[in-house]
Amino acid sequence: MSEGKLLISGGTVVDPSTKREGRADVLIEDGKITDIQPSIAARNGLRRFDASGKLVMPGFVDLHVHFRQPGREDKETVETGSHAAIRGGFTAACPMPNTSPVMDHRGAVEWVRQEGQRVGLIDVRPIGALTRGQQGEELTDFGELFEAGCIALSDDGKPLLSSLLMRRALEYAKVFGRPVIQHSEDTCLSAGGVMHEGLVSTTLGLRGAPSESETVMVARDLALAERTGGWLHVAHLSTARSVELIRQAKQRGVHVTCEVTPHHLALTDEAVRGFNTLAKVNPPLRTEQDRLALIEGLKDGTIDCIATDHAPHTAWEKDADFDAAPFGIVGLETALGVCATALIGPKHLTWSQLADRMAIAPARIAGLKDHGLAVSQPANLTIVDPAAAWTVDPASFASRSKRSPFAGHRLTGKVAAVIRHGLVAWDASA
Question: Deepest of 81, 106, 191, 197, by most Cβ within 10 A of its Cβ?
């Protein structure tokens, strides 16, 4: 559609940032919201999008994706990742720096940003590397990376093991008011584990990574964040103990935020039975007790947001034997359906709470301003059909990777359309 005026009519607006939830029409002019009323009359030259029976939410923001470019274009590119994101309801996504070359300098960051702008489907906000080459030995030039447009710094995929470097990183990033994102894993404890250490790993004869390999690192980093006053963001939480540690730290006033993935909210290590490499992720899928604790943490606000950790791989890599197959699954195009089915259906969360965890909270952490449904704000919206039942078919994914543990799963809740900068960027019915 061309730019101009667009009326989204008949929908139910759900926006926790303005505490608005109810039937309303939304008028968009020149990329911004200009009016929200129970009913807005159609006028000549006004295009109309019928959202009857659907929810109109702030655009989803994903704090944790892997677009693989530059270096592994056979797995994903900024363009294919952007197409997957928009189909999943995301209007912004934050690619991690473990590319080749690593996003540890201005040129690499600016290239990814420019490629995102060229594609033009979503806002691409890179996360820069925390250490040179992600080697964990020398901090990057934080000032250069933040100036180039990074929203945070991380060595995701590799934990920063040095306590001294982590302390310095938190102190350095504090100057810029931005977070350090940690992949919380004590690799001495995980020791090459390929799944959660427990009954299932023992039954399958696979090397397990204990829960403590995460919680030990979370405890250390919380202590450093408390000492420095720096902003720690913990990526992809997976254990009940980690949730409790962060809950207690927040109560003490520690500046910590954290995220959880849809697959950790919906699956357990039981999904690995049969040596299912599609369920091989890092951190690993854990127990039902852990899963329920993650849901409770998301519900009470201990866990700030949901992030997909979209990690595409080629078919030949994921179809290898379990030990050789890489960690990671695709998550952008199933995120809403998985979360709605795992959280809304069982009444763990309301739609307003889910909108907060998938849109408002991650936008706040990413430093995206004016993200919500209010007059004069940019019109970045996700329209959801809450009753739509569908079966996951990875062959239809826009992502280059077609390997998902949710293949064949019946989900309820689907993205119907996405409005970005006032334009219909994705319409499932079309």
Answer: 81
User: How many Å apart are CA 425 and CA 127, to the nearest integer?
Assistant: 24
Tally of CB atoms within 10 A around 203 = 10
The percentage of the chain sitting over the pLDDT mark of 70, rounded to a whole number, equals 99
Residue 409 in any domain: the answer is no
Q: Which two tokens stand for residue 51?
A: 């959202």
Q: How confident is the model at residue 356 (pLDDT cuts 50, 70, 90)?
A: very high
Its pTM surpasses 0.85: yes
Q: Which DSSP category does 284 fall into?
A: P
CATH number at residue 320: 3.20.20.140
Which domain does 215 fall in, by range? 57-366
Asked if residue 149 lies in contact with residue 176, where contact means CB atoms within 8 angstroms, the answer is no
Whole-number percent of the chain with pLDDT over 90: 95
Q: Would residue 19 count as lying in a domain?
A: no
- The stretches of 177-229 forming alpha helices (DSSP H) are 187-190, 199-204, 212-228
25 a catalytic residue: no
Residue 375 maps to a domain: no
